[in-house]
Amino acid sequence: MGMGHSHAHAHGASGDSPRRVALVSVGAALLLIGIKLGTGIATGSLAFISEAIHSGTDLVAALLALFAVGVAARPADRTHPYGHGKAEHLSALAEGAVLVAVSIWIAVVAIQRLVEGGHEVDATWWAIGVAVLIMAIDLGRTVTLTRAARRFNSAALKGSALHFASDLAGTAAVLVGLLLVRAGVEWADAAAALFVSVLVLIAAGRLMHENVEVLMDRVPDADEAAVRAAVEGLGPGVELRRLRMRSAAGRAFADVVIGIPPGESVGRAHAIADDVEDAIEAAVPGADVVVHVERREGADEDLAERVLAVAHEVPRVREIHNVRILHLDSGTEASLHLKLPADTPLPEADSVARAVDAAVVRAVPEVTRVHAHVEPLGEAGAGSEIADDAAAADAVRAVIIAECGRPPHDVRLVRTGDGVVAYVTLALGAATLAEAHDTGGRVRRSIRHGVPGVVDAFVQSRP
C-alpha cells in the first residue's frame, strides 16, 4: 500500500516589497554610473571608469534581480509544479558571468597602463569629493540590501548586496589612488583599477559557486540533518525510508517516503503523514513537503495483515488500528485496538472483543493469543454555518486560487466546538485522482496555516 500526502504553505503577498527594493537598486545604479563615468572621463582616471563599469554590472544585477523576484513570486503551475524560485538563482549566475568578463577587461587595461605608463590623471579636489560621496551612497545601499536579503531570504537581492559591498571597497581604492596620484604616484590610479578587477572576480566567483550549488539541487547539510532528526524523533512506528531535498529561493522542498506498521488504518496513516509534515515544518520552517506512506513488508507484516482482515469480519467492529505482533517464549501473540460506538454497553463491548480474540486464534493458527483493546468512536459534534464572515471566506478563496490557479466551486464556513472549519469544493478540471488528492492536501494545509481563525478544512474535488 502506498499513498501520497502533500503539504505546502500559502505565501503572502510580500513579493511587492522585494520588487520595490530592486527598483530602488536600479535607480541607484543608473545614477552612480553617470557620476563615475563622467568623473572618470573628465579626470582621465581608469579607476573611476572601471568603477563606472563595475556599477554597470551592478545595474545588470539589479535588473536581473527585478526580473527574478517577479518571476520567482509566481505560483506553481502545470509546467512548473515546484514554482519559479530558481529564476533568482539563474539571474544571479548570469550576473556572475557578466562580472567575470568585465573584470578581465579591466585587469588587461590596468596592466597595460602599469607596464607602458605615460597616462596622466587629473586628481582634482572635486573628484576626491565625488569619491567620498559615492562611498557614503555605497555604504547605505549595502546595508539596505543586506537587510532586505535576510528578511526575504532572496538569492537575487543577496547577490546585489554583495556587488554593492564590493563597490564600497572599490570606491575606497579609487579614493586612495586619487590621493596618491595627487601626491605624485602616477601609477596609483592603474593599480586601483587592477584592485577593483580583483574585487569583481572574487565576488563573481563566490556568487557563481553558491548559485550553481542550488541549481544542481545540492541540499544544505543542516536542513537534511534537521529533517532526518525530526522524522526519526516521531518514534519507532515511523520508518524513514527515503529523503530527497532541494532548495530554491530560500525555500526547502522535501520528498519523504515513510514506512508504517501494516495494522494502521487509512485514517491513522493520514494522521501519521500529518505528524511527519508538522515535524518537518517545525525543523525547517516554510518547507514544501510531500509524504508517501508505505506499509512495511515481511513475515510479521503479513501476519498482521491477516489478523486485521479476520478482525474486520467480526460484526459490530467499526475500526481497527495499531495491530502489533509479539514473539514470546510461550508463542506468538497479537495486540490490536478496536473502535465501537461510544454508547456501547461495556458487557457488549467485552463480547465483541472476545469474539475478535476467538476469530483470530481460529483463523490464524500462528497466533496463540490476542489482546484486543476497545476504544470509543468519536462523538458527532454540533455546528452552525457562518454566513456573515465574508473576510474569512474571501481569505479561504484566495488561498485556493493561489494553490489551484482557479476559484473553487464552493466555500462554506462552519463553527464547531473545536473552532471554525472550512468545507470547500475545488474545481480541478481534467486532473487525475492522484493529482486531485495531492492538491487537496496542499489546500487543506494552506488553509489551516494561512487563514487566521480557521482550525481545519475538509476538501472535495470536482472536475
Features:
Alpha-lytic protease prodomain-like; Alpha-Beta Plaits; four-stranded mixed β-sheet
Poorly predicted ranges (pLDDT <50, ≥5 residues)? Answer: 6-16
| Strand element count | 11
CATH class of the largest domain: Mainly Alpha
Amino-to-carboxy terminus distance: 26 Å
The helix fraction, in percent, is: 55-70%
- H/E element order: EHHHHHHHEEHEHEEHEEHEEHE
What's the domain count? 4
Query: What's the name of the CATH homologous superfamily of the largest domain?
Result: Cation efflux protein transmembrane domain
From the 3D coordinates, which CATH architecture of the largest domain would you assign? Up-down Bundle
Specify the number of helices. Answer: 12
Protein structure class: alpha/beta
Write down the Rg.
32 Å
- Look at the structure and give the mean pLDDT: 77
Q: Which term fits the overall shape? A: elongated
Largest sheet: 4 strands, mixed
What is the strand arrangement across the widest sheet?
1-4-3-2
Beta-strand portion reads 15-25%
Question: What is the CATH topology of the largest domain?
Answer: Alpha-lytic protease prodomain-like
Map the helices and strands.
Layout: E1 2-7, H1 16-43, H2 46-72, H3 86-116, H4 125-152, H5 155-182, H6 188-215, H7 221-232, E2 239-248, E3 251-260, H8 266-283, E4 288-295, H9 299-312, E5 319-328, E6 331-340, H10 346-363, E7 367-376, E8 383-386, H11 390-404, E9 410-416, E10 419-427, H12 433-450, E11 454-462
Parallel strand pairs: 3-4, 6-7, 10-11
Antiparallel strand pairs: 1-4, 2-3, 5-6, 8-9, 9-10
Helix pairs in contact: 1-2, 1-4, 2-3, 2-5, 2-6, 3-5, 3-6, 4-5, 5-6, 7-8, 11-12
